[in-house]
Amino acid sequence: MANLMFKKIQNIDTSFRQFRLFCFCILGATTLICIYTVFTSFKMVSSMQSRIYVLANGKALEAYSSDRKDNIPVEAKDHIKTFHQLFFTLDPDEQAIKTTITKALYLADESAKKVYDNLMENKFYSGLISGNVNQTIQVDSVQVDINQYPFKFRCFATQDIIRPTTISKRSLITEGELRNVSRTENNSHGFLIERWNTIENKDLKTINRN
Q1: Are 82 and 106 in contact (CB under 8 A)?
Q2: Under a CB-based contact definition with an 8 Å cutoff, are residues 199 and 152 in contact?
Q3: pLDDT at 1
Q4: Contact 173, 156 (CB under 8 A)
Q5: Is 91 helix (H, G, I), strand (E, B) or coil?
Q6: What pLDDT is attached to residue 67?
Q7: Three-state SS at 209
Q8: Contact residues for 192 (Cβ-Cβ < 8 A; gap 6+)
Q9: Residue 69: what pLDDT?
Q10: Alpha carbon of residue 57 to chain centroid
Q11: What residues in the chain have per-residue pLDDT under 50?
C-alpha cells in the first residue's frame, strides 16, 4: 500500500515537472514570437516612413525620402535658380511685377529688398511698363560650397531685355550665402539667401528686331 502511494506521489511529481517544463516551453515560444512580431512591426514602420507618395497626373507615385544632407546641393541650387528667375523675369505689367517680386523676396533677406527698393527709387520698373519692355533670365550654372556654413554661392546667368525694336543680351553674375530656415508654403526649400550682391551685369550684344 505504501509502495503504491509512493508511486502515485512520484507520478504526480513527474507530471508536475513535465507540466512545468511544458509551461516554460510555451512561455519561451510566446516570448520569441512577441519579440519577432515587435521587430518585424518596427521594421515595417521604418520602411513605410521612408516612402513618400507623390500625386502626379492623378496617379500616386512612390518616392523615397532621404537625409537632407544628401539633397543640400540640389535643393540649394534650385532655391537660387528659383529666386533669380522670380526676381529678374519681368513683364510690363505692374501687378505681374509685384507678384513675382513678392515671391522672390520670401526667398532672400533684406539684401534683396534693398536692391528692389533701389530699382523702385530709380524708376526701373515704371520704365519697363512705359517702354513695354520684357525681361527674361536663363540661369546657366550655380556654384554652391557646402563645406562651410552659411553656404556660399555664385550664380551665372544670361538676361534678355526685349524692347519693341531691339533685344539686348546681358551677362549676370551674383553671389551670396544660404542659411537654413523652416520650410513653408512660400519657401519650400527651407533656405534663405543672405548678403546677395551683383558682381557683374554687362551688355553682351544687341539685336535689332525686324
Answers
A1: no
A2: no
A3: 57
A4: yes
A5: coil
A6: 53
A7: coil
A8: 107, 108, 109, 178, 179, 180, 181
A9: 63
A10: 21
A11: 50
What does each C-alpha distance from 102 to 45, 110, 125, 194 come to in angstroms?
41, 13, 14, 16
Q: What is the pLDDT of residue 29?
A: 77
Position of cell 519657401?
Answer: 187
pLDDT, residue 196, reads: 97
Instruction: Check residue 63 and give its pLDDT.
Output: 53
* Site of grid cell 524708376: 123
CA-CA-CA-CA dihedral for 176, 81, 93, 120, to nearest 10? 0
Nine-digit cell at 19?
507540466
CA–CA dist 181, 190 (Å, integer)? 5
191-208 and 134-145 strand pairing: unpaired
The CA distance from 128 to 164, in Å, is 11
Rg value, the chain, Cα: 34
What was the pLDDT predicted at 62? 52
- Please identify which residue in the block is written with the cell numbers 539686348: 168
**Helix, strand, or coil (residue 93):** coil
Helix (H, G, I), strand (E, B) or coil at 150: coil
| pLDDT at site 42 | 65
What's the pTM? Answer: 0.69
Cβ 103 vs Cβ 86: under 8 Å: yes
- Determine which helix (DSSP H) or strand (DSSP E) holds 99, and give its type and residue range: helix 94-105
Instruction: Give the model's pLDDT for residue 52.
Output: 54
